[in-house]
Write a structure and sequence with these properties.
It is found in: Secreted, Extracellular space, Extracellular matrix. The chain has 197 residues and is mostly beta strands. The chain has helices at residues 74-79, 115-118, 160-163, and strands spanning 10-14, 17-20, 24-25, 31-32, 46-50, 53-57, 62-64, 70-72, 85-88, 91-94, 101-103, 110-112, 127-132, 135-140, 144-149, 152-157, 172-177, 180-185.
Amino acid sequence: AICGHGCKYGECTGPNKCKCFPGFTGKTCNQDLNECGLKPRPCEHRCMNTHGSYKCYCLDGYMLMPDGTCASSRTCAMVNCQYGCEEVKGEVQCLCPSGGLQLGPNGRTCIDVDECSTGKAVCSYNRRCVNTFGSYYCKCQLGYELKYISGRYDCVDVNECVTNTHRCNLHAECLNTEGSFKCKCKQGYRGSGFDCA
């Protein structure tokens, strides 16, 4: 089967028909499915939507169970965790609902991990890392745009000379470069290309 528009997070099952991987939706499977909005709700107390998935966490004084329910816990109530807790070998530990969050110095609240500055994020060479609370995503570098080409999404150079987004002088030529552009004064003029006299 051929899907001309592509299936970003899924597979092509029929002419222009995508079967999305779990956690994704849309005609081209390019949208994150917000599991927290589904009925019945996947979590008893609180739900945090993440890219392609979700995390459950409990109100203070409750403990997260493997099925997403929350059990009352006197020990958890005493610890006063921001996002619920778990008991491991009789010891109470506070939880963070995502790997992009870590327990703060007080051991009760969760703080964001900046994957972009710690080098934990892996983005391909033509993409830049953007940190979010609890996670990160990869965005095309400046001068590139996301396009669907020969079966996959890729960051492609923007030709500023064609899109007319350059700032070259009226008496200058625009020359496209990878990720940017250059301006060169036309014959009979001299200057930087942004200013020509």
